[in-house]
Amino acid sequence: MIRTLTVDLGGTLVPVDRTSTTATLARLLGLDLPRARALMGELAKRRRCTPGQLAEELATRFTSTNPARLHQVLKRARDRATAPPLYPDAAPALDRLRSRGLRLVAVTNSLGCTVPADPVAALGGVVDHVVYSADVGATKPDSDLFRHIEHATNSAAHELVHVGDSARSDAAAALACGWSAVWLDRTGANPHRCPPGAAYAATLADLPRLLEGDG
Questions:
Q1: Within 10 A of 121 (CB to CB), how many other CB atoms are there?
Q2: Start and end residues for every CATH 3.40.50.1000 domain found in the chain
């Protein structure tokens, strides 16, 4: 029986910007996007820091980059994270699942410098807790992050289901840890990309039906 539902944040509960913070940093640092993502995973997603601290660290590595510009980008990202808009399907679907007695946890690989100092009111309305990779020291798809959630929620792997929009970092990673998984494809056009063993959803409104009997 499923006791705990974990939900990815960006792209699942919260819309992502057309140009991500990491993509903007990649342009400023003169990196391609894969290298910038790897760098952010190394420097920023496994620890808390401030926008100013990360900007200075990046400027030290990339001496031709303006630290003030980096700080501006990172601070703007942190400001957005304090009041994120939710997808319209988020609250209705999660309210129905909560009414079944499921514990709801949001999980995100957010940059540590964008983690709000105080609980985010918008998220508190739909989930019971938010797990930031910066506080765990591990990011999806690392198994350490999923094991941390098992311990924090006192749930066994077979009692957990994870929902997210990344086939690899969300669905496949959860399945590899023995969890159930739902891959969210908001385009509704790629069911063939759903990892074997995961359920497929085009909207969060599908969740109550997919989890019927598990609440």
A1: 10
A2: 4-16+84-210
User: Strand 103-108 relative to strand 129-132: parallel, antiparallel, unpaired?
Assistant: parallel
Name, in order, each residue with C-beta under 8 angstroms of 50's C-beta and a sequence gap of 6 or more: 113
- Fold of the domain spanning 4-16+84-210: Rossmann fold (3.40.50)
pTM over 0.85: yes
With beta carbons less than 8 A apart as the criterion, state whether 48 and 114 touch. no
- The tens-digit pLDDT sequence of the chain (215 residues) is 899 999 999 999 999 888 899 999 999 999 999 999 999 999 999 999 999 999 999 999 999 899 999 999 999 999 999 989 999 999 999 999 999 999 999 999 999 999 998 888 879 889 999 999 999 999 999 999 999 999 999 999 999 999 999 999 999 999 999 999 999 999 999 999 999 999 999 999 999 999 975 54
Distance, in Å, from the CA atom of 197 to the CA atom of 142, rounded to the nearest integer, reads 19
Per-residue tokens: 136: 């765990």
Report the alpha-carbon distance of residue 207 to residue 182 in Å, rounded.
8
How far is the C-alpha of 119 from the C-alpha of 129, rounded, in Å?
A: 9
> For the chain, what is the largest distance between any 2 Cα atoms, rounded to a whole number of angstroms?
57
